[in-house]
Amino acid sequence: MRASRLDDPEHAAYAWGRFRTILKWNLIASAVAALLGLLALRWMAGPVPWFMALMTVMGIFMTVGCAALLMGLVFISAGTGHDAAVDNTMPDNQI
Q: Lesser CB count within 10 Å: N end or C end of the chain?
């Protein structure tokens, strides 16, 4: 198994710091998307019950936030060489 750059504590600290910065910006983007969704709902449907507004905001916020989290993990994994460090060979007799 090859070594990953995440095994180096200094590089790992830099990578995770960058990941946290990306997540902070994505948190802001999630909040903006939720607010825009709520405004669009208000514009298209008029006044809505508070529970519907709350669930709309939570649904949009969590969807955008989870997508950002998963994409951030993909970027940190690929960007640090962690993916390349995995031994992905199979024996010849297995399909």
A: C
SS3 26: helix
Rg (CA), the chain: 20
Residue 93 CA from chain centroid, whole number: 38
| 30-39: burial string, b at 16+ Cβ within 10 Å, e else | beebbeebbe
Task: For residues 35-61, give the mean pLDDT.
Answer: 93
Contact by Cβ (8 Å): 23, 69: yes
Query: Which residue, among 65, 75, 69, has the nearest Cα to 27 in the 3D structure?
Result: 65
Full domain range(s) for residue 72: 8-79
- For the residues 71-83, what does the mean pLDDT come to? 78
> Taking 60 as the threshold, does the pLDDT of residue 1 lie above it?
no
Domain-embedded: residue 28: yes
In a domain, 88, yes or no: no
